[in-house]
Design brief:
By secondary structure, the chain is an alpha/beta fold. The protein has five helices and five strands.
Length: 153
């Protein structure tokens, strides 16, 4: 059993009402409930955290160093394109993560083409609306199973 953390950055508390043509009509609570059920079905424990504040996201990532978090599903939202500090926190704790976006940032404004996370992520899932989160969880479950197979008994 692994511990999976869903981590969401600024404005993602507004899902369901925010730019629904890009991000869909599901709320963050809907997404958290679905992922929690899917993670538990696969035998993993699941937690979720959202903040608009960079320092709070930093503290949550720092906590992953010793709270047993095995893998993060991370949508850094606007911090994707700005935050060296969040990148450094992930490098400092070494917690593996998938980068998740509902929209496809590569197909939007030029400033969204830069990500401070993609090159250090296990993988990037983008462009599938709220379903991106489920796809990221599926990828995480497969990754954890492959890693467990490699472990000596
Ligand atoms: C986003 C894409 C970002 O560019 C944007 O700032 C967000 C959401 C996405 O999920 O598509 O807030 O991360």
């Amino acid at each position: 059993m692994a511990q999976i953390l869903l981590l969401n950055g600024p404005n993602l508390n507004l899902l369901g009402q925010r730019e629904t043509h890009l991000y869909g009509k599901r709320t963050l609570a809907d997404i958290e409930n679905e992922l929690s059920g899917l993670a538990k079905e696969a035998g993993h424990s699941f937690g979720s955290y959202q903040s608009d504040a960079e320092h709070e996201l930093l503290q949550r990532i720092h906590g992953c160093g010793d709270d047993g978090t095995d893998l993060i599903l991370f949508n850094p939202a606007a911090f994707t394109h700005t935050s060296v500090a969040l990148r450094d926190a992930l490098l400092a704790t070494g917690t593996p993560f998938f980068e998740v976006h509902m929209s496809n940032p590569a197909a939007r404004e030029p400033f969204r083409r830069q990500s401070f996370f993609s090159d250090i992520a296990l993988g990037v899932i983008a462009g599938f609306g709220p379903h991106s989160y489920c796809l990221a969880l599926q990828a995480a479950i497969q990754h954890l199973a492959a890693a467990a197979e490699k472990q000596p008994e």
